[in-house]
Amino acid sequence: MRVRRLPASGKQRSNQPLNPLERKTRRTVTFRCKRTMNAEVSYDFRGCAVSPGCIAQTGPRIEPETKNWRSGPSWLTQTNDYRRITVAYELPPLPYDYAALEPHIDEATMKLHHDKHHQTYVTNLNGAVEKHPDLGSKSPEELIKDLASIPEDVRKVVQNNGGGHVNHTMFWQIMKPKGGGEPSGDIAAQIKADFGDFESFKKLFNETTAKQFGSGWGWLIFKGGKLAIVTSANQDNPISQGSYPILGNDVWEHAYYLKYQNKRPDYLAAWWNTVNWDEVNKRFATAKSYK
């Protein structure tokens, strides 16, 4: 990559290109994002340490080494001044390594699923919010909870990509390395009360979710004092229908096709070995009081 250094005035100082791999020049840039607020970072032409998702899209672009981030590519623009960079929503880093869920979910799938697909939902959601900046003050959950209040020109974008962001953020959290096994705590007692036993529940969940036509999700929700298994198309989330998802499994093909090809039932069966029941219990507590 070849870049030209710019003075603070924005005018080009020289026609001689600088090789970022040969000459190191440090800068300090002030940026703002929803999670980190103001922060100062130093960067050079070879790389920088930035908050995931904070992006300056003007001027010559310097792409940093992002091996320490699992949140997809980020960059700051080369400047000699201070800039404020605003972004409403960020891609959260995985809470574990890409290969941590092997052999049930492979490393290649996790990289593609998180860094590409989830990042796309975040990028598209931010694009919708740019058209209506007041939306950026709401959480993604608040956006999809009241879709009727979203301006019509971006409503479908928010439904699809806000839902995708919420769904996948939950998905990473309800899995963990060396997870699975029998549920414990309050969710175990409720599963026994509503389905008889865990194996009966798991069988019904897998059968119901496997029948979801095309892309979508299988969900466990709490409604009317009982657990219920439902499915949704695309990235629709039960929150839009007034229910808080306790657990959900992604049956878009990008979630499993590299390893399982067209064998969705095999993926569904293997997925239970990754479930983080501690997180599911936290979500169950939230679901019981959700309004």
Describe, in short, the structure shown.
The protein is of the alpha+beta class and 291 residues long. Helices cover 35% and strands 15% of the residues. The chain folds into three domains: 1-87, no CATH class; 107-173, Fe,Mn superoxide dismutase (SOD) domain (Helix Hairpins); 185-288, Iron/manganese superoxide dismutase, C-terminal domain (minor pseudopilin epsh fold), CATH 3.55.40.
Report on this model:
By secondary structure, this protein is α+β, with helices and mostly antiparallel strands. It folds into 3 domains: 1-87, no CATH class; 107-173, Orthogonal Bundle (Helix Hairpins); 185-288, minor pseudopilin epsh fold (3-Layer(bab) Sandwich), CATH 3.55.40.20. 35% of the residues lie in helices and 15% in strands. The chain is built from 8 helices and 8 strands, in the order βββββαααααβββααα. A 3-stranded antiparallel beta sheet has the order 1-2-3, with no helix packed on it. It has a 3-stranded antiparallel beta sheet with strand order 7-6-8, sandwiched between helices. The chain has a two-stranded antiparallel sheet with strand order 4-5. A hairpin with a 3-residue loop joins strand 1 (27-33) and strand 2. Helix 1 runs antiparallel to helix 3 (152-173) and helix 5 (198-210) runs antiparallel to helix 7. The chain is globular and about 50 Å long. The N and C termini lie far apart (52 Å). Residues 1-84 have low confidence and may be disordered.
